[in-house]
Amino acid sequence: MATIMVVDDAAFMRLRCSQLLAQNGYKVIEASNGTEALAKYKEHRPDGVLLDITMPDMDGLTALKELMALDKNARVSMVTAMGQQSIVIEALKHGARDFVVKPFDPDRVLAAVKKMLS
User: Fold this and answer.
1) pLDDT at residue 81 above 90?
2) pLDDT at 82 over 80
3) pLDDT at position 14, please?
4) 104: phi > 0 → left, psi -120 to 50 → alpha, else beta; which?
5) Model pTM?
């Protein structure tokens, strides 16, 4: 069973995504910002990370760069609001494998996780 870390400052988004993943056989770890995500990544070494771009404390792009510095094989997909295409392109250049647009479609999230883990 693959472990996925869901990183989002919005509790309802974490809950919604975590429930979807758990219902589809994934173990889930949650983090509410980039700093917490880095600490939990070091502790748990999840198989994949769904990482929100816009968060307080440490934004998703900074967290992505830190995760990739920590583990060059980290598997990360970004979660983005509409209109953040330039940040998504930057994230893909820095190692993100895919992205999901909010509000997300459950099938798209599952497809992004499968792609990230392959």
Assistant:
1) no
2) no
3) 95
4) beta
5) 0.94
Residue with the two structure tokens 């979660």:
79
As to burial, measured by CB atoms within 10 angstroms (0-12 exposed, 13-18 middle, 19+ buried), residue 30 is: middle
What fold characterizes domain 3-117? Rossmann fold (3.40.50)
**Which residues touch 36 (CB under 8 Å, ≥6 apart)?**
7, 57
End-to-end CA distance of the chain: 14
Residue type, 81: A
Q: Where are the domains of the chain?
A: 3-117
How far, in Å, CA of 100 to CA of 104, rounded?
7
Confidence band of 31 (pLDDT split at 50, 70, 90):
very high
CB 33 within 8 A of CB 9: yes
